[in-house]
Amino acid sequence: MATRIFLGLGTAPVCRRALVGERHASTVRHPNPNPNPKPSPLDAPTLHENIYTFPNLLTVSRILACPVLAWAILEGSWPLATGLLAYAGVTDWLDGWVARRWGMRSVLGTILDPAADKALMTTLVVTLAMKGLLPVPLAVIILGRDVLLSISAFYWRYTSLPPPKTFARYWDFSIPSAEVNPTEISKINTALQLLLMGVTTVSPLIAYDISMPLRVLQWTVAGTTIWSGLGYLFANNSVRLVGRPPKKP
């Protein structure tokens, strides 16, 4: 037995076991009603990658060469235009080879490479059409497809960006979100478009009449351009969200 002292009332017997029980009850921890709380999107880790690679540098150099190429075509400096077009073709092959050979692939590279191709193609299409060397309807088909694909790229970037979706994070390409995988028909179309633009660019330097082969090539490019545009819209694996397995065909 033990005693408790009450102010002004003297003492009262208290069971020692009850005292122990009170002390024990005061130290009991109640279980967490939510043992597995859902982490906040702000606490989720964000993937970053190295974007300062040699292949990406080559790709950016192709983009920077486009204004010079446009000036050369509009001024009729065909040797310079041909040289810049050859440089673009070599670096387009080289950046992909280096990325595969030395493991320098990046999600930004999958975005920059087609963007550089589109910048080059847009420069050639607009300037050659302005010089009267490329039919305007074909120029509209090529540019229209590229505009639609660019809009879809902005959409996929926003929907696949890990939260929080902010303006700064949207333009931070070290945060990978969606990877663009070119389709086979798109690769063929790009090669044919570059062939057409290359032949058209050097045609003023050729002494022979090549108008008929050019016309056949123009119709072929028109068909592959439409086909490849539809392929991006309906192909299962043309766009893959980072961190998710590719869609099954």
From TrEMBL:
Superkingdom of this protein's organism: Eukaryota
Q: Which InterPro entries match?
A: CDP-alcohol_PTase-I (IPR050324), CDP-OH_P_trans (IPR000462), CDP-OH_PTrfase_TM_dom (IPR043130), CDP_ALCOHOL_P_TRANSF_CS (IPR048254)
Which compartment or compartments is the protein found in? Membrane
This protein's UniProt keywords: Lipid biosynthesis, Lipid metabolism, Membrane, Phospholipid biosynthesis, Phospholipid metabolism, Transferase, Transmembrane, Transmembrane helix
Q: Which Pfam families match?
A: CDP-OH_P_transf
Topology in the lipid bilayer is annotated as: Multi-pass membrane protein
Annotated GO molecular function terms are:
cardiolipin synthase (CMP-forming)
Q: Quote a single Gene Ontology cellular component term.
A: membrane
What processes in GO biological process is this protein linked to?
Answer: cardiolipin biosynthetic process
Recorded family membership: Belongs to the CDP-alcohol phosphatidyltransferase class-I family.
Q: Name the PANTHER family for this protein.
A: CARDIOLIPIN SYNTHASE (CMP-FORMING) (PTHR14269:SF60), CDP-DIACYLGLYCEROL--GLYCEROL-3-PHOSPHATE 3-PHOSPHATIDYLTRANSFERASE-RELATED (PTHR14269)
Q: What is the designated name of this protein?
A: Cardiolipin synthase
